[in-house]
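Researcher: Please translate sequence to structure tokens.
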Amino acid sequence: MEIEYLLDPNSIPYPYLYIYLGLKFLCIGLSAFFVFIIFYSLATTSWIRFRFWENLLEFIMFRPYGSSKYAKEWKKIVKKMDTGIESEYKLAIIEADTLLDDMLKFMGYTEETTEKKVEKLTPIDISNINELREVRKVRNFVIQDPDYKLTEDKAREVLKVYEDSFKSLGFV
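Model: Translation complete:
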């Protein structure tokens, strides 16, 4: 008997019919308003870009989203090797290490220093992890000793290891 009021509006007594219809239109109006708000929010915020476009681009390009930014930075670093100046070689190594730190941050490594981030890496993450740890020692020498002599061959060797690491991460 009581459910009959919900199923058949004609069985609702006359004074309550207007309340029922008013509530019905109010609910329809609120539903339309909230659907509008949802579509407006999706259109104006970056949520769809983060949830859909980035994943689609990663799938299509077979590279992490944002890797083109790192590839451009890497090209700038490699250009420093063509100058023939030792200080530019040192700067290139320091910038390559900074780029590595940025990539690891982008990948979600939250440790404070690059050294700690590299310690957490495994051969699954970077295939040449042991070589990377060795060339980071050269980077530390460059940072700590301003009189450290760095040849072009050694700098190219160090940058080659960084490049292989970046390729292993999928950024270059």
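Researcher: Any highlights?
Model: Residues 65-169 form one domain.
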